[in-house]
Structure formats: C-alpha cells, structure tokens
Amino acid sequence: xxxxxxxxYGIVGWPVSHxxxxxxxxxxxxxAGLDAVFVACPAPPETLEAALAGAHALGFxxxxxxxxxxEAATRACEALDEVATRCGxxxxxxxxxxxxxxxxxxxxxxxxxxxxxxxxxxxxxxxxGAGGAARAAxxxxxxxxxxxxxxxxxxxxxxxxxxxxxGAVVGALVEPVPWDDVEEASRAAAVxxxxxxxxxxxxxxxxxxxxxxxxxxxxxxxxxxxxxxALARSAGARLVSGEEILVRQGxxxxxxxxxxxxxxxxxAAALEAGARSPGDLR
Length: 282
Hints:
The protein is α/β, with parallel strands linked by helices. It has two domains: 7-105 and 245-273, Leucine Dehydrogenase, chain A, domain 1 (Rossmann fold, 3-Layer(aba) Sandwich), CATH 3.40.50; 107-243, Rossmann fold (3-Layer(aba) Sandwich). It contains ten helices and twelve strands. The chain has helices at 21-31, 48-57, 82-87, 106-116, 132-143, 155-168, 182-188, 227-235, 242-258, 266-273, and strands spanning 7-13, 36-42, 62-65, 79-80, 92-95, 100-103, 124-128, 147-151, 173-176, 191-194, 217-220, 238-240. Strands 2-1-3-5-6-4 form a six-stranded mixed beta sheet, sandwiched between helices. A six-stranded parallel beta sheet has the order 9-8-7-10-11-12, sandwiched between helices. A hairpin with a 4-residue loop joins β5 (92-95) and β6. α1 crosses α9. The longest helix has 17 residues, at 242-258. It is globular and about 55 Å long.
C-alpha cells in the first residue's frame, strides 16, 4: 500500500508507456523490503524542465531519464558527475536538498558488458546514432580503448558527438562515418553498436544495410525482438542485448538511489516475466 512514507521514484520520457523500468525497479524495491514505488512519467520535450522541477518539488527521491531527454536533462541538474559530464548526457537523477545530481549508468553498464564480450584496446567499433544513448555508448567504447566510427542520419550530430567525446576522453580515437558507408564499415568492425531509436514505439525509420558476421560483437540499445538483434543472431555475432544493458544500468541506478545493490537476479527475472515488445533502454 502507498502511504505518505512511501518513497517515490520514476522514469521521465516521451513516450514512456512502453518502459519496463517500473516492473523491474518495483520488483527490486519489493525484494529489498523497501517502501518505494516506481512510476512512468510522460513528459514531452517542451515540458521537461517543468517536469523535473515538479518531480523534485513533489519529493521524488530519484528518476531515470530516457528518450528523447538524456542530453537536455543535463541542463536541469545542479551538478553532474564525471561520467555524465564526459558523455554530455544523463539517464539517472539523484535527489539532493536543492536539486538533481545527474549521472549516467548507461555508460558503465555498457562498458562492463562489452568488456565481458571481449571488446578491448584497439578494437574497431562502429556506432550507429548520435543521441544520448550513443554518447553513453561512445564513452563506453572509448574507455575500453576502442577506435570508434560514428554514423548518424544527421551528419552534423555525428560530427558534434565526435568533437565532444574527443575532447572529453584522453586519447580518444573517434571520427564520423558517412551514413552511406555504414555497410562497408560494419563489415570491417569488430563491434557494432545500435544506439539509434529505430524500433522504438512512435519512432519511424529503418537501419541502413549492415554486414554483420560471426566473430563480431553486436550491441543493441533497444530491447525486445528488434531487427538489429535478429540480424546479429542470424549472422552468428555475439549479441549484447538491450535487455542486458537495461538490467545492468537499472542495478547501478538502484545503487545510486538507495546506497546498496539490489537483490541479485531480481531485475532480470522481472524483465523476463514481462512482455517482449520492443522498447528503449529503460
């Protein structure tokens, strides 16, 4: 039962009704014996600043931020940690007395999973996308010592990401790749990361032609039965799924909010029990 003592947490995005985070975080709160709830909070871009200020005024303890707000939400934070500053994007907000402290759990979660899949120094990576998720993925790849090519439909967005990350990560090797050259670049890459919004509810578009193959690592920031995941599996690539990223970043967010790790396996089990329609990283 929700009472006046129940701690409030939520996820802010547009759209956000498809998010699996409420069931995942809710299961973790219950398993940990915490009096807390996690709710989906839809906010179109023009209301983001007011929505985040309102959530703080209402006493929310923490928030996730998802598409399309990960970059814009940095401007609503009174402080950013080092990873969020270098990424230029946040996905997790932690309450302080006077505002929000922003962090990015997408980035370390992705770095952990890619490292476990064998991605390391000198690996050639192709990153699709240039939004908030792509910035976290770029940080993850660069922190592992990969050489990163960034391809996006908007050339200016890919170039901006490369400039920002090159200046934020010491020794970064990151450069734009023309969208029309993605197929050849994907053939030569050791790791291909899909950080576009293709497959999300209400997000039209299609991936460019890809030449995935066995021996590659393919990482998808969208979860569910996506086109990218199907291509990776059929090609025999090692898939790091959107579900894996969702769970690990959620566990890290839980730690930021509560000061302790969630019960092991609870978030993954809650996600597995839910529907598998495509959804974004939250």
